[in-house]
Structure prediction request, 167 residues.
Amino acid sequence: MTTLKNLEDLFHHQLKDIYSAEKQLIKALGNFRDEAYDNDLKDAFDEHLEETKEHKNHLDDIAQQLDIDLSGVVCKAMQGLIEEIGSFISEDAAPEIKDAGLIAEVQRIEHYEISVYGTLVEYAKALNHKDVSKKLQKILDQEASADKKLSKLAMKTINKRALVAVS
Prediction:
């Protein structure tokens, strides 16, 4: 267990946690894509997988810049969110319902990431890590954009199909 003595220590710990989360998500997003039926939803998952890989690379750059090692922490929140999606995927559901549920489940992940990155941006600013805060803000903006894309897809087509689905 690490001793957290100051905001810098907490900042590093939170970076390690989200790094673990991003690595877990990289492994899981392909599975979510495979479970989706709607091609636009599959594309959204593919796009977010590429963004998530980019996020991990940005975190690697930040770690190098701050001279810290991001390994050694497992994000239990992401583990739980991914397990929750696994439980949902195993449910017997019509394709339209499954797609609507996948959006809901993945948006939980997006909201978690948005909250973490929002906090990290503020910590970086407080610690006067200007370049780091800009990189983290870029990730935060992409997470918010992914969430909006999923909402738009849900409202435009997926939820309407789920509404009239016949099992």
The mean pLDDT is 95. The first helix runs from residue 7 to 35. Helices lie at 7-35, 39-66, 76-89, 95-126, 130-163.
